[in-house]
Amino acid sequence: MNSETMRNLGSALLTDKPISESVRSDILESWARSHNAKVNPQATILPAYMPTEAASKLNDEGWQFRKEQTRIFVDRFYDLLIKLEAAIFYTTSDLTIIIQRGNEAFLKKLNSFNLGIGTNLQEKYVGTNAAALAYLSHQESYVLGSEHYINVLKDYATCAVEAINFDDKTVYGYFVFISSRDRYTEYHPLILDLITQVTKYYLNHMWDNSEHIMMNDLLYQNAEDSNRGLIFVDQNGFIIRTNPWLDSHIRSGFRSQKFLDIFPELAETMDCLQTGQNLPLKEVYIRDSSGKKVNIFMECRPSKKNGQVIGMIVSLIDKKVLYKHTAQLSNYNAYFTFADLIGSNQRFDSIKTTAIKAAKNPCSILITGESGTGKELFAQAIHNGGNHKNGPFISINCAAIPKELIGSELFGYIEGAFTGARKGGSPGKFELAHKGTIFLDEIGEMPYDMQSVLLRVLEERRVTRLGGNHPTPIDVKIISATNKDLWERVASKKFRLDLFYRLNTIKIEIPPLRERLDDIDMLVNYFLKQFNLSLNKHVTSVSPEVYKIFEEYYWPGNVRELRNVIERGVALCSSDTIDVDDLPLEMQGSYLSYIPDDEITIHGQTRQTIYYDKVRSSERLLEKYNQQINEKKRILELLEKYNGNKTRVAKELGITRTTLYKKLQY
Q1: Quick count: other Cβ atoms within 10 Å of Cβ 382?
Q2: 3-state secondary structure (DSSP) of residue 89
Q3: How far apart are CA 216 and CA 65, in angstroms?
Q4: Tell me, what's the pLDDT at 243?
Q5: 20 to 30 Å CA-CA from 438: which of 207, 279, 398, 458?
Q6: Which ranges of the chain have pLDDT less than 50?
Q7: Residue 525 and residue 237: Cα distance in Å, rounded?
Q8: Which residues pair with 506 in a beta bridge?
């Protein structure tokens, strides 16, 4: 049926004359509905109308996500549209156009009569068209030339297919293909079929997958402020999305292309698609848009639907960015500042002043002092008061790591360096501490053969991974600490003299609590406030008798022990004042020397009874101490047995990893 005949039939409909020609029934019915809706068939411009419901959808986050996903999909037809001088529109479920793609000149012509973003294609607004028929029939539809109701559309051919979730039959929107009627050929139905089949595949694999949507929501939420490049790859290896960081720092303009065509260096990521397994963080080399080699870290994780891999997210992280954000990524943070170092004792105040000065220069610092004096608190304060405060603070207990593993922990290793080495190797703590601080606690316990390697790192400010031969420059503030007499260990050939001098540039010797008793009052008040808050109590002071005990007590555990005593007192105290009977029994014994032998004192017991109780308590403490020593020895043996694998050690001991870490800190 030619165009002129169709026009005559349309005129007959408008004048209520009988129609005898062969016209598709769906077109005739649509004409009738358009006529009844008082659509103007002579219109030369379409009404630019957007329903309120459609407008509200455009501001909905979930809808914005689907819109962005659809844009990626529609872009795949871009080259085809250019060649055909055609366009594709994507509409909401109520036929409001929200995306347009195609030949630029052709789109400009369509937009000139309001066929574009914001136009609603329902029959009641623009009359007969393919989108309106698909909307009513839920089938692929096409309308050719004069089959359209409004004159302005009669020079065009439209085809439409709904975008539907095939599981719950939810219609998300419609894809509308439009070309000039003169350019419409026998191939256009094939194009419509192609669009239909690809659309079904796309929707089946993308929109009905909640896990995928959640992962992509995370991707888009972090896209603008992320410090890494993100590439979303579908199950066929095509790039369907990147983020601005990647576009500006590495390469851009490769959506819809094969991932391996753009990044052939990252071929191993295909294992992620094939096996569904995460590819852990590793160091790789890729080329940027200028062809320059870029040293970068990469990790990859799959996206799955019903157990089947449907894509993967590849993350590319610049080395400098990784090092800068190690504190956030690995929870390597320093929480204490110089304001948290409580005390006004003259000697303590002098040491604090020295530490403040030491924080401002790059010299190595050695902190000495008995257990519990606050060596790590000083180290954290120095970090936060220095030029490396924005970097990570990494604390290493040299006594807690088996000697076979301390080298790889500190300096890292390359792939194949030893049996069980992680694929791609692993950076050590010195590399991760770049632009930050590394705190070597219990430095006196470092294995002798590792001390020469540490000395070289300190002198050269470069680190070479185990098994490797390429040194990496590092900028690290080095603080070490010990409760041992390093001179004695040097004399017994357990510590290198040259390393001692290298570490001991600035020495900070923290006095034990028994030598700064004038700080006890200040410390007690500080801890009372702290534990009142955490335990929701209102203890305001300690009794004079308790202060007397504190002044006479030897404090073998130093400030840490005082802290624990106050925490216990606040927890057990039934009034607003900590009294003697709120103290540990071994400390209560210190008070007995001031009480007559026959006087009833604590808990209805005599001094003699309490004395023997104290002896028994001490024996129990000694037994508990020996148990802890044996337990730690057992843990170290298992760490050696399992090559430092703490998960396996915890499993054999029947404890959690968290408990294991706590036991390693004893």
Answers
A1: 29
A2: strand
A3: 8
A4: 76
A5: 279
A6: 1-3, 5-8, 10-20, 55-56, 59-65, 207-225, 325-331, 592-608, 610-612, 614-615, 618
A7: 63
A8: 365
Tokens of 41: 């068939």
CA separation for the pair 186, 55 (Å, rounded): 37
- Determine the Cα angle at 16 with ends 12 and 22, to 5°: 45
Instruction: Confirm whether 135 is domain-assigned.
Output: yes
Buried b or exposed e, range 234-259, using 16+ CB within 10 angstroms? bbebbbbbbbebbeebbbeebbeeeb
CB 96 within 8 A of CB 118: yes
In eight-state DSSP terms, residue 158 is E
Residue 561, pLDDT score: 93
- The residue count of the chain comes to 666
Q: What are the strands, taking DSSP E only, across 292-398? A: 293-305, 308-318, 365-368, 393-397
Q: How far apart are CA 346 and CA 600, in angstroms?
A: 41
DSSP, collapsed to helix, strand or coil, labels residue 438 as strand
Asked if the structure places residue 589 within a domain, the reply is no
Give the residue from 190, 187, 158, 188 showing the smallest Cα distance to 175. Answer: 158
Report helix, strand or coil for 334: coil
Phi, psi of 190 (to 5 degrees): -65, -40
Q: Are strands 577-578 and 156-164 parallel, antiparallel or unpaired?
A: unpaired
Residue 38: Cβ within 10 Å count = 7
**Is residue 407 situated within a structural domain?**
yes
Do 480 and 347 have their domain in common? Answer: yes
CA 193-195-201 angle, 5° bins? 105
Measured CA to CA, the distance from residue 200 to residue 194 in angstroms comes to 10
pLDDT digits (tens, 9 = 90+) for 254-277: 766 788 888 888 888 888 888 888
Name the DSSP letter for residue 582: G
Q: How many CB atoms lie within 10 A of CB 657?
A: 12
Phi, psi of 251, deg, nearest 5:
-150, 160
What's the number of domains the chain is made of?
5
The alpha carbon of 537 is separated from its chain's Cα centroid by a whole number of angstroms, namely: 37
